[in-house]
Amino acid sequence: MEFDHILIRYGEMALKGKNRKKFYSKLQDNLRNTLAEFPGIKVKRTQGRMFVLLQGHDPNPVMKKCKEVFGIQSLSLAIKVPNDEQQIKDAALYALTNSENTKTFKISVKRIDKSFPIGSQEFNREVGAHLLINSSDYTVDVHHPDLDLKIEIRTEATYLTSEVIKGAGGFPVGTSGKSLLLLSGGIDSPVAGYLAMKRGVAIEAIHFHSPPFTSERAKQKVFDIASELTNYGASINLHIVPFTKLQQLIFQEIPDRYSMTVMRRMMLRISEAICKKESILSMTTGESLGQVASQTMESMNAINEVTNYPVIRPLITMDKLDIIDISKKINTYDISIRPYEDCCTIFVPKAPKTKPQREKVSYFESSLSYEEILQDAVDGTEVIKFTKDKRNKEDEKFQDLF
Ligand code: ATP
Ligand code: MG
Fold first, then answer.
1. pLDDT (tens digit per residue) in 258-287
2. More exposed terminus of the chain, fewer Cβ within 10 Å: N or C?
3. Mutation pick for ligand 1 pocket among 179, 183, 189, 319 (CB with most ligand atoms within 8 Å)
4. Top CATH class, 5-166
5. Range 40-53 average pLDDT
6. Which residues are within 5 Å of ligand 2 (an ion), measured at CB?
7. Residue extents of the structural domains in the chain
């Protein structure tokens, strides 16, 4: 006998009918993907419950992986036994005597299968007595037990679970549509992508690259970040936009104070074109109100004018320190702080306008013939697919570039 199952709980969400079905099957798919590195492991659904069948694998690394999957409220290791009085008692004794640092325990029986002959209360007492009789070092504590053993008698089997471990919460990635994440090499945009994924959004990413002003190493940062983000969604397509010509044009033709605003508008225009091409319905950015000159209310108003696609800004009200905390947790921080320049830092004016006006930006843009160059950028966009399995291969491939 052993803890050979993981019970997956997905809090009661206000989901109805079809949505609920989609939620369950996405969660099952995502779990299978995440656990692909453990051969033979199974993810099963039975009547309102989901289980990972460990098939001989050490539970700890598997639990660790499961804790990163969005849509899971909590998880517990579980023993599965037939609905047989004696076998349930034996399993309870096994769970107690194999529980570390345990002196006190509590039993909670829940009889869902009413054909089981003994009522919850009565069986509770019987199992408790069995444990006390067959072991010597333990006492019952119903308020603060070291081991809180739950016994759920269901139609198909009985499950015994102990510790309840918190899951990542949110919704399974892929249940809330898809968004195009504007991914720089900085700290913020990967966190924005992570938070969008937490709400169930699948991500494609877009990066504006300006060689030779930005190096291959700057691009590598973005590859590494995209790879890291595949830990939360199965795969990520990264669109690399050749942005040099457009940036040079802006740099030459637009007054310094407005070049940043125009550049951001170009980014959104190109992003919208890619969205249309890929049937993606929104964009996501790492903007946070007041963080830098380009992230004022006026600036967002002026930038946003060029698209009527929703622009999701998960970090908009967050403090930098809280954003940094998340970036450390998701392992993108160390990549983001590598000191390579991105296209914005290269062309950034000394004193960008903090309160740009729509009318003025439009006026400056009206004398700029950018349409063809913009279209070339869209057409010249290269797509790289990052998946968990491909991750190492991609890394090796790009090592060759240096
Ligand atoms: P980040 O830390 O994400 O780079 P930031 O604080 O540096 O953000 P900005 O440089 O103003 O802020 O960029 C705001 C947002 O614009 C970024 O979060 C990102 O979504 C997008 N962005 C900026 N530069 C690029 C780029 N080269 N490619 C793709 N998106 C970009
Ligand atoms: Mg940046």
1. 999 999 999 999 999 999 999 999 999 999
2. C
3. 189
4. alpha beta
5. 90
6. 184, 186
7. 5-166, 178-401
